[in-house]
Design brief:
By secondary structure, the chain is mainly alpha-helical. The chain has helices spanning 2-28, 35-49, 58-80, 90-93, 100-119, 122-133, 138-145, 149-170. The protein has eight helices and no strands.
Amino acid sequence: MVQARESLAFDSLHRDFREPLLRFFARRLPGDAAAEDMVQQVFERLVQRGGFDSIENAKGYVYRVAENVFADHMRRAAVRRSHAHDQFDESLHAGVDFSPEHVLAKKERLARAMEILQALPDRTRIIFVLRRVEGWKYQEIAERYGISVSAVEKHVERAAEQLARRMGEEA
């Protein structure tokens, strides 16, 4: 009997708040596909809490939970730096082979590239990583190490040649 009453109360909350919650999240995250998931999280938290009949101000409580879900989402996004991620584009990535053999081969190739980089002189390796991986400008690297831009270019070129030659030898 209690379970049936709880179920009815939850159905009522879901019916009354699902669409308004979708709008609530869509306003805060325009263009983000996470709104539906966040609404789901709100209702999951409400189910975990239970006792829907005892909530005096259902609207206030539901929106308080929604604000907590939104705050959690923003914290996770900041930690994961999700704003810096590229969205999956099927037209660009549809042909990528994700088979275990292919993934293993790529991991082994990456490990080999890391070994080659580790064998480079420290300064050359660091400059190469700053430029090619971190995306620093040649001028920034030159200023950091107190060397000319030309010297930075030579370090990057030397590292790239080593990588290409040694990786090419194994291909």
